[in-house]
Design goal:
Layout (H helix, E strand, L loop, with lengths): L1 H25 L6 H30 L2 H24 L5 H21 L1 H18 L2 H7 L7 H18 L1 E3 L2 E7 L2 E3 L2 H18 L3 H20 L3 H19 L2 H21 L1 H11 L10 H13 L22 H9 L1 H24 L3 H25 L17 H30 L1
Antiparallel strand pairs: 1-2, 2-3
Length: 440
């Protein structure tokens, strides 16, 4: 009977997330607010049904009563987050709230299946992150001097990255985190936010050659420190973000072409200098000769996705634990194996839907500073998604970057919540302005 429930639920979950994803894009086609709210309500229904079915399977397979308590706690959290967001901010983007909850839901499901203890820790971090970052839209709406702190943003970011470079803990060949007592956090996750604010503030002041040169030098220093820490995934993320922000601010194709050419040269130099980069490239180019060592992670990922096919093996029917560090940068492979390629593709499309919403908000902002922030954070988000999924699917070499709101990791969780709330702040600010204009 349990196997019948698992098999039936697998297809129902695929159907539900396909409906959720359809509503995600259908939302953009409706001009009136009432129909958009109706679509968001249907998204909520689909998400809670997916959540219920998944945890029903987990409980039946694990027979652990703690799963029921954990499921109930998540339901309370999702309901509170959805409705308190609307209560605190009348003009909040319901689509972004829903998508954040949907991605969290998928992450909690997979983490519970992989490691219950890690899922509980991730849930506690998510609750804390939600509470901490709820004030950000209020700050965005009431503090008008944010564009004046360009060098403060740069200073904070550079100091944090330098401290990691000198005192950071080494993980998989790179200095990524700082340990304070029993806690560990990854400063680069937060510096990517200050980095965007720095670049936006500088280009808001001016886009003349001198300002561009000074800003580029400061941005290059961020990237250089990350390279010295051997955190090349973050270095690439910062570099790509800056190049596109520079292009949007100046509309100068020379800057874009020169930046991409410089990035290609830097990537080749990193390959020649760092053995762990050579290992990852070799494993990416042809992992099969190294299946017992440096190609093990990517080959297991490919096996998992191939085994799962379009419809997946079903929860607890696969072997995601065979993939090293599966709960972090390779969680997309675990989703593909047990929930199916269609389900994983829908998760990716939801991420793309978030990015489209970011870009639409950026396009509507009249203030250059806010426009650049929305655009920059959108680039940060989508590049991180690309690096994660690209590495898992062997489209690009693995960079060790996590999938936002889905992968296990406290620093990534808190910084992504902050990113979403900054975008929410800009959206609320714009909607408030539109309402004031309509009243006048």
């Amino acid at each position: 009977m349990t196997n019948i429930i698992i098999e039936t639920s697998k297809y129902l979950m695929i159907l539900l997330i396909a409906c959720y994803t359809f509503f995600n894009f259908r939302f953009f086609s409706f001009p009136d607010l009432e129909r958009k709210r109706m679509v968001c309500a249907r998204q909520n229904q689909a998400m809670f049904l997916i959540h219920l079915l998944a945890y029903l399977i987990i409980y039946l397979k694990s027979e652990d009563d703690r799963v029921l308590i954990f499921y109930a706690a998540q339901v309370v959290f999702f309901l509170a987050y959805i409705y308190l967001s609307r209560l605190l901010y009348r003009n909040v983007s319901r689509l972004l709230v829903n998508n954040a909850c949907m991605l969290l839901c998928v992450g909690f499901i997979m983490l519970t299946r992989i490691s219950f203890d890690k899922a509980v820790r991730q849930f506690a971090i998510a609750v804390a992150a939600a509470v901490i970052t709820w004030i950000i839209p209020y700050i965005m709406d009431h503090v008008w001097q944010l564009s004046l702190g360009a060098w403060l943003y740069a200073g904070i970011g550079l100091v944090l990255l330098a401290v990691v470079c000198v005192l950071g803990t080494t993980t998989f060949g790179a200095q990524l985190s700082l340990e304070i007592g029993a806690f560990s956090f990854q400063p680069s996750e937060f510096v990517k936010l200050t980095f965007v604010f720095f670049a936006a503030a500088m280009f808001y002041r001016s886009t003349d050659l001198r300002t561009v040169a000074v800003t580029t030098a400061a941005a290059a220093l961020h990237v250089l420190i990350l390279v010295m820490s051997k955190d090349l995934g973050s270095a690439l993320l910062f570099f790509v973000t800056y190049v596109f922000m520079l292009f949007i601010a100046t509309s100068n194709w020379f800057y874009l072409g020169g930046g991409l050419a410089a990035g290609g040269a830097a990537a080749f130099l990193a390959y020649t200098l760092f053995p762990h980069v050579q290992t990852r490239v070799a494993a990416w180019a042809d992992p099969w000769p190294y299946i017992d060592n440096k190609g093990y992670q990517i080959t297991q990922s490919l096996f998992a996705m191939g085994t799962g096919g379009w419809f997946g093996m079903g929860l607890y029917q696969g072997m995601p634990y065979k993939i090293p560090v599966v709960e972090k940068d390779f969680i997309f492979a675990a989703i593909s194996e047990e929930l199916g390629g269609i389900f994983a593709l829908c998760v990716l499309l939801i991420c793309i839907g978030c990015f489209l919403q970011f870009m639409m908000i950026a396009g509507k902002m009249q203030a250059v500073f806010f426009k650049l922030i929305a655009f920059g954070l959108g680039i940060v988000y989508i590049v991180q998604v690309f690096l994660t999924v690209g590495g898992v699917t062997k489209f690009i070499p693995s960079t060790g970057v996590t999938l936002p709101l889905v992968s296990y990791g406290g620093s990534s969780m808190l910084s992504t919540f902050a990113l979403f709330q900054i975008i929410q702040g800009l959206y609320i600010l714009k909607r408030n302005e539109e309402e004031e204009y309509e009243e006048d």
